[in-house]
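Design request, tokens follow.
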């Protein structure tokens, strides 16, 4: 998650580290083992599948048994190739950069920059993260990506989370969300655009990524309240984001009232 404070008027502050209680030793060990070990064996002998990705097509190749780790591709390959030798999948609506990250995850268990556990500080960090203060823990790695139809830059981890939702990769969703929690210095317009994208590309049952954005806006409400971008977005509307934000804000106020009433009974 992100801190309450922002580094500048329209920038999100560095994320708050979860409490030690949420980082049990066995969870740390399990995640680190996943990151250190490929998801597939070293001997890859299954047929090669050609993937044509994007509106301006880029060609990828992957082993069938690796792709089948995704329920989406397992079903597609079974249906399309049952009696066919032309092993080819077209993904015209997928962004090649994002699909490259998906393949990297399927083969290696992570995508660049990798999530690493720093034993000395007992915390997670991103590979090549050298300038934590100025670059959000990503070193020289750009945290945003521009994809067709988005109207501007989006947080890359949000787009990967949504792709993982499509492909049925639950562990990748958790990984992308954890990486996004290490962000800082993200402008309000990028956050709101990414939140809209998240709402447009996740089901209403999603309780992770959507909640992440709602909590971010509430915790950094002073900055968002001053933002002309936030005002314009709310006036335009057209997204369930703002109703969910209203409900979350009401719940936040109710919690404050409940705490106050427990000390000195009163109503608001």
């Amino acid at each position: 998650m992100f801190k309450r404070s922002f580094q500048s008027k329209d920038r999100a502050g560095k994320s708050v580290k979860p409490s030690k209680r949420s980082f049990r030793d066995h969870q740390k060990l399990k995640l680190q083992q996943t990151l250190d070990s490929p998801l597939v064996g070293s001997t890859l002998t299954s047929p090669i599948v050609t993937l044509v990705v994007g509106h301006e097509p880029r060609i990828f190749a992957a082993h069938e048994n690796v792709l089948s780790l995704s329920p989406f591709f397992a079903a597609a390959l079974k249906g399309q190739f049952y009696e066919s030798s032309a092993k080819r999948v077209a993904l015209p609506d997928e962004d090649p950069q994002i699909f490259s990250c998906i393949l990297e995850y399927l083969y290696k268990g992570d995508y660049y920059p990798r999530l690493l556990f720093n034993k000395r500080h007992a915390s997670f960090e991103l590979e090549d993260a050298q300038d934590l203060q100025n670059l959000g823990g990503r070193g020289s790695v750009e945290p945003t990506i521009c994809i067709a139809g988005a109207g501007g830059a989006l947080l890359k981890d949000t787009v990967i989370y949504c792709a993982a939702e499509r492909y049925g990769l639950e562990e990748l969703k958790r990984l992308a969300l954890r990486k996004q929690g290490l962000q800082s210095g993200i402008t309000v317009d990028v956050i709101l655009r990414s939140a809209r994208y998240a709402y447009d590309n996740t089901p209403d049952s999603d309780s992770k990524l959507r909640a992440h954005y709602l909590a971010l806006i509430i915790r950094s409400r002073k900055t968002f309240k001053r933002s002309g971008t936030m005002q314009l977005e709310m006036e335009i509307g057209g997204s369930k984001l703002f109703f969910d934000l209203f409900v979350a804000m009401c719940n936040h106020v109710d919690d404050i009232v409940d705490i106050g009433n427990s000390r000195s009974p009163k109503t608001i």
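Comment from the thread starter after seeing the answer: thanks! The mean pLDDT is 79.
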